[in-house]
Write the structure tokens for this entry.
Amino acid sequence: MTTFGRFKKRVLPALALVTVLFSSAAYGARIKDIAFIEGVRPNQLVGYGIVVGLNGSGDKTSAVYTMQSIANMLNRMGMKFDPKTIKVKNVAAVIVTAELPAFTKPGGKIDVLVSSLGDATSLQGGTLISTPLKGPDGSVYAVSQGSVSLAGFTAGSGGSSVAKNHQTAGKIPNGAIIEKDIPVSLFGKDKLQLSLRSPDFTTAERIADEINRDFNGTIARPQDAGSVTLSVPENYRDGLVQYISRIEALDIKPDAVTKVIVNERTGTVVMGERVRLSTVAISHGDISIEIKTQYYISQPPAFSPKGETVVVPVEQTNVQETKSKLIVMPEGVTLGDVVRALNLIGVTPRDLVAILQSIKAAGALQAELEII
């Protein structure tokens, strides 16, 4: 029996290491999940506003833009105020962001994210005043207003406090009403472009082959790793919705570069099924150095002049080197087999990262190593 065979029959020790194997070839994915029609995408919106109703946790008077915003709002309501005379603690300046999906019509609602701009300590209990949200072109596409939800709390007194979750950013579910839609027209087009979310030549080829097989003709051609050109058949010119829906529902097996993802903090290793190794020998050893300091008390003799007690530190240093173990992994084994074998020789998650880096540097790891 080989060395590796003996390793596999042992019981794996308890170790803070989780190895996850996933297969991209066992299950297919809908084209809808890995690609989208070019031009059909969400758009980012942003706006500046103020949150009122805070319990003394708003911006300080040093945030001059907050006081100016309060004065501007009151002036629009018919009251004249000088920003320098305004001193409040219940208002905070915020940046409001949102994502406007394609084909969303006026009157629809979207979620918004409210984030503090100044030195406010909490937005808990605050209400966002009507804030226009603009797109990159400067046009107003939505207006946001409502109570800010933080999903947390903060409390304290006498110099001590307790906080749960982030207190200076929160959401307003359905907090923005769409005032203007982004024009996207597909009517009458004879060609469409399908864009891959993760460009890959093999995946683009498989998408084109599956579409051509389903329509029994050559209507899809891969242009590069990130796009596939679609020709719209005559019978679908007035029914592009049905045409796109039919294509989105098709299943293919996407391909990707084989990766090994290692999280050094948690000891998690995620790898693909196609990770393979060339023949490699792995040796693991460790050195433990322990330094102890003991204090001895030296009592003064009887009738000494001063009678002082002397504390004498004594250091002891012990060096212990564990016995190195060598394992040989034959060519063709998977990285999952390597991780299991490394578990058996007592490799910690931190050591595992260094070993995987060394295997990659030696050219024996046939995958891309990414450490997060």
Summary: The helical segments are 3-8, 31-34, 64-76, 201-215, 240-248, 335-344, 349-361. The radius of gyration is 32 Å. The domain at 29-40+185-252 is CATH 3.30.1360 (Gyrase A; domain 2).
